[in-house]
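User: Here's a chain of 94 residues. Predict its fold as tokens.
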Amino acid sequence: MKVIGLIKLKDTAAFETYRGQVGATVARYGGEIAFRGAFSEIFWNELACGEFDAYVELLFPSRDAAVAWARSPEYGALVAVRSRAMTLTLFGVE
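Assistant: Prediction complete.
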């Protein structure tokens, strides 16, 4: 399963802290960070998606693994720093 995140940065120092720790939580559940990038261009926005600065794409071996990661205590421990760092929309696609 792919998990996609749209990120609106709020605090770059907190973002760097989060970014430095989140990969280990993803790996623990069999996932990997497949791509990170900065926002470049919106071609259509018919869903009225809010502004975002960055994008991340995670890959997990299954939906169950992605859900386990998202609900894990390891990732949960990062939510406070994540909340300082960014506003996040995170969703899975199969």
